[in-house]
Amino acid sequence: MKVVRAEVRLGRLLPLADPDRDLRIAESVAAKVLRQAADSVPGARAETCRLAPESSGSDVRVTMTLAAALDRPLPDRVHQVRRSVLHLAGQDLGLAVAAVDITVVDVLEPLPPVRPAVGPGHPAGGGR
Questions:
Q1: Among the residues of the chain, which ranges form H helices?
Q2: Least crowded by CB within 10 Å, which of 3, 71, 99, 101?
Q3: Phi/psi at 75 (5° precision)
Q4: Angle at which helices 74-88 and 27-39 cross, to 10°
Q5: What is the overall mean pLDDT for the chain?
Q6: 14-47 tens-digit pLDDT
Q7: Which long-range contacts (CB under 8 A, 24 or more apart) does 102-106 make?
Q8: What is the reported pTM?
């Protein structure tokens, strides 16, 4: 069983959007990078990410589950995550993405408010 667990599984190979070459990327690698794109949006954390080739050529469909904070409207946050994923998929990976389907499955606690910086002569803690 240790050998089976240690086996690296890259998943299926997905085509990159380069018609002149037959370039491919492992699904697991692309999914990890796209989860990082979602995580870069404040108040969002990707839970899962799956990529599947579309029947029409080199396009892929991204299906992602997300945990999100409720400090902003969910449609706005989902839109921001979708834009981040699409940008990174096209710019950094060279994937042609047909669609990004996102389902919010969990709620994140909002970040605590930022405390104002303590200025000179006003030490934190109220004294010496």
A1: 2-6, 27-39, 74-88
A2: 3
A3: -60, -35
A4: 140
A5: 84
A6: 878 776 777 888 889 999 999 999 999 999 999 9
A7: 102/64, 102/65, 102/66, 102/78, 103/63, 103/64, 103/65, 103/66, 104/65, 104/66, 104/67, 104/68, 104/74, 104/78, 105/47, 105/65, 105/66, 105/67, 106/47, 106/66, 106/67, 106/68
A8: 0.76
> In angstroms, rounded to a whole number, what is the distance separating the alpha carbons of residues 76 and 33?
22
For the cut 60, the answer to whether the pLDDT of residue 6 exceeds it is: no
Residue 87 predicted with pLDDT over 50: yes
| C-alpha to C-alpha distance for 48 and 75, rounded to whole angstroms | 19
Q: What distance in Å separates the CA atoms of residue 7 and residue 28, rounded to the nearest whole number?
A: 14
Residue 11's SS3 state is: coil
Residue 39 exposed, middle or buried by CB count within 10 Å (0-12, 13-18, 19+): middle
